Amino acid sequence: AQKEIQNGVVVDKQAQKIITNISSTLKTESPISLNFSISQKGQKTSDKGTLKINGNKYTASFSGNNIYCDGNTVWIYQKETNEVNINNIEDTENEILNISKFISEANTKFRPKLIREEKGNYVIDLAPKTKSEFSKVRLMSNKQTNRIHSIEVNYKKGNVYTYLISNYKTKIQSKDIDFVFNKKDYPSAIIVDLR
User: What pLDDT is recorded for position 8?
Assistant: First the structure.
C-alpha cells in the first residue's frame, strides 16, 4: 500500500515521507554544523571536511577549498591557486553541499525509493526525474532522528563519492556574515567573477 502508480511510474510513498521528515528535521534543527569524510570509490585516501548549514545558506571547507553560499551567490576559494570563483547559486555544481535545499527538492527532482532498513537507518535511492549530473544519489538516514548518516553520489561520468557524516550539532551560533566570502581573510586572492 506504500506504492502507487502515477503517470505510468511507481511512486514510493514511504520513501517520499522519509525524505519529507529529513527535510523538516533539517529546518527544525538549523543552524547545523557537521563534520564529514569524503571518499571516492576506487581511491585509498579520504578527505575530511566541515559543513555549516542555515536554511539555504551554507559554508563548507575541505581539500583546501572553502565554499561560502548566502542563498544567492556562491564563492569557491581554492587554496592551491589562491583564487576565488564567484557564481550565482544556480550555475554551480555544488548542489549536494546545499543539503537543506537538496533534500527539500528531492521529492520533486528525484524519484525516491526505499531500498532497505539497515542498522537503524533507512537506505533510500534517489533517481533523477530530469537531465542531471547524477545517475543516482543514495541517502542513509537514522530512523529515530531523521538525520542523514551518509550520502553516496553516483555521477554519470562514473565517479562515486561517499560523504559520511559525524559530529552533528544543532542550533549552533550563526550569523549571516558566516556565509559570505570576506576578502579581508584572503587579501592576496585572485577574484574571478563568473556571474
Answer: 64
Give CA–CA dist 75/97, Å, rounded. 13
Long-range CB contact pairs, 113-121, < 8 A, 24+: 113/12, 113/15, 114/2, 114/12, 114/14, 114/15, 114/18, 117/143, 120/144, 121/149
CB 97 within 8 A of CB 110: no
Cα dihedral across residues 17, 105, 59, 72: positive or negative: negative
Find the mean pLDDT for residues 80-97.
Answer: 86
Collapsing DSSP to helix, strand or coil, 191 comes out as strand
pLDDT in tens, 134-169: 899 999 999 999 999 999 999 998 999 999 999 999
Do 7 and 22 contact (CB within 8 A), yes or no? no
Q: How far is CA 169 from CA 102, 129, 136, 143, 176, in A?
A: 19, 32, 28, 18, 18
Judge whether residue 46 has pLDDT over 70.
yes
- Cα separation, 54 vs 171, in Å, equals 9
**SS3 for 156?**
coil
- Nearest CA to 180 out of 96, 99, 89, 93 is that of 89
